[in-house]
Amino acid sequence: MDYKNQIAETIAAVVPELDNATILSKIEVPKDASMGDYAFPTFLLAKARRMAPQQIATNIVSEIATDGFKEVKAVGPYVNFFLDQAQFGADTLAEVLRQTDYGHNTDGEAGHITIDMSSPNIAKPMSMGHLRSTVIGNSLAEIAKANGYQPIKINHLGDWGTQFGKLMSAYKRWGSEEEVKADPINTLVKYYVRFHKEAETQPELNDEGRAWFKKLEDGDEEAHELWSWFREESLKEFMELYNDLDIDFDSFNGEAFYNDKMDAVIDTLKEKHLLVESQGAQVVDLEDEGLNVAMIQRTDGATLYMTRDLAAAIFRKNNYNFVKSLYVVGGEQREHFMQMKAVLKKMGYEWSDDIEHIPFGMITVDGKKLSTRSGRIILLKDVLADSVKLATAQIDEKNPNLANKEVVAHEVGTGAVVFHDLMNERLGNFDFKLEEVVRFEGDTGPYVQYTNARAQSILRKAGKPELDLNNLSIDDEQVWETEKLVASFNDIVRRAWRDREPSVIAKYSLNLARAFNKYYANSKILVEDDQLNARLALVTAVSYVLTESLRLLGVKAPKEM
Ligand code: ARG
Questions:
Q1: How many angstroms does the Cα of residue 164 sit away from the middle of ligand 1?
Q2: Distance between CA atoms of residues 508 and 224, nearest Å
Q3: What are the residue boundaries of the DALR anticodon binding domain, all occurrences included (predicted)?
């Protein structure tokens, strides 16, 4: 039952000056439950009615239909609604159990949402920095789907650019094929780090690197062969990680894919007189937007990250006809995306307004930035392996006879890392401490998983009963909070999408797990009485919503752990 809607309709009947949608948007959930379950503020009627809000609230209460509510009363300028708990709980449980997709809505009307996510750079390890883009993007895709959109997950691999020229030049100088084959990414990183160190005293190295990249762009055979070999080896390693996380993509069109699509962009820019020369390079002036110039083409004709992103944006619009195009990329690239949108706008593409950079905060280690060049990197691969090890130890201790121990340890270990990342607000920075990520108590993914496994175990003990959906009232104050949380799941799914914020779901799942555990600690569930059916329905509903919340985050919910 959607109580908020019902309340809005009830109010609308006595407040003709406002439409339903406005009323709905004004209804609040008071922080303090003693102020009611929902409240409607009357301030915005004061002008029209030329009356004090307090008086308006009193008038509304005297006119409003109160059946279906435990109480409706005016407190100051608010009309407070108290729900009938038993009725509300029963309605809520019936709704969850009757639907196959409780929490989902069709707001998106099947519109396409492209999501640029993960997008690691070839020949570099996928670091914790890319984990955030991967898991936030994946979760946003699931949340978009739950809101009725069709997400398209695009891995815009960093497989093109001057850095490949540098790598080739490094490889030609110091590289050995056997060494690369034995340990590809680490070896390539080693060359790359050495290149940067030596270039500090020999700046001509940078020119050599640029020349190699130019060769690559011009289709030189040797350059192309090296490039595709580096790419292949790197992708193999990335795929292992994606498999570990059980994350897939609809497209791996990386930067190189746009190599033959950039001339058209440059031509259009020229036609529209947007390109100007600046120190030999071709740029778009964005001073009127308060932005730095966007570099489109270097003196030697080589293209840039920006050029490829412009081609990619246009390709995505033509190919996917998106209603929104999201880019889940760290906050340090904010200006890049502002420039990209501004250039597209100048080119006359009105749809550039539908492009959204979804920035996220930085992960630091002991307060310091991570970077491949400095060698200060945490490898996602290692973090996941350590986390799975810790999960295995926990299971060995708590549930040594568990079947599928390895599978569950994997689900719990990787789930811990993913959940930890997503429960932090997207824009916040956080310092990474392995022990915290893989903690199994407190605000963690494993706590939510464990709560769900507990619910599942109750249902197993009850022998997976057939539930009677006409008998769902529970006469127990302790269950109120849990029922209200279950009922708010629809709102949570909408809010998570509106704010592009998976942490809304993660925090919600922690609240629901806590509320249910509190109820479970104080009330007996498996007692043969006339409310057993309703209590088992509650456990079923809680497990459903916890499982679905975790799924929206990209975290598995094992039935036993
Ligand atoms: N490869 C880039 C990096 O690691 C991220 C690419 C983001 N996507 C994009 N379309 N620019 O910084």
A1: 15
A2: 49
A3: 448-561
Please state the three-class secondary structure of 57-111 as a single string: HHHHHHHCCCCCEEEEEEECCEEEEEECHHHHHHHHHHHHHHCCCCCCCCCCCCC
- Are 84 and 68 in contact by the 8 Å Cβ rule? The answer is yes
Q: Could you give the C-alpha distances from 21 to 46, 180, 215, in angstroms and in order? A: 19, 62, 60
Q: Whose CA is nearest to atom 4 of ligand 1?
A: 120
The confidence score (pLDDT) of residue 373 equals 54
Q: State whether the beta carbon of 358 lies less than 6 angstroms from ligand 1.
A: no
| pLDDT tens per residue, range 351-379 | 999 999 999 998 776 666 665 555 555 66
In the structure, how many helices (H) and strands (E) does the chain have? 22, 13
Provide the token pair at 241: 């990680």
Query: Of 538, 514, 516, 536, nearest to 526 (Cα)?
Result: 536
Q: Which two three-digit tokens encode residue 399? A: 């549930």
Quickly state the pLDDT bin for 5 (edges 50, 70, 90).
Answer: confident
* 415 CB near ligand 1 (under 6 Å): no
Distance of CA 124 to the CA centre of its chain: 24
Cα–ligand 1 centroid distance for 173 (angstroms): 28
DSSP for 223-247? HHHHHHHHHHHHHHHHHHHHHHHT-
Q: Ligand 1 pocket, 309 CB below 6 A?
A: yes
Q: Is the CB of 255 under 6 A from ligand 1?
A: no
> What is the chain's Cα-based Rg?
28
Distances (CA, A) of 285 to 268, 321, 352, 509: 15, 28, 17, 47
DSSP H or E run through 270: helix 262-271
CA of 429 to the centre of ligand 1 (A): 19
The complex's ipTM? 0.99
Ligand 1 lined by 136 (C-beta under 6 Å)? no
Name all domains of the chain by residue range, CATH numbers in brackets. 3-83 (3.30.1360.70), 380-553 (1.10.730.10)
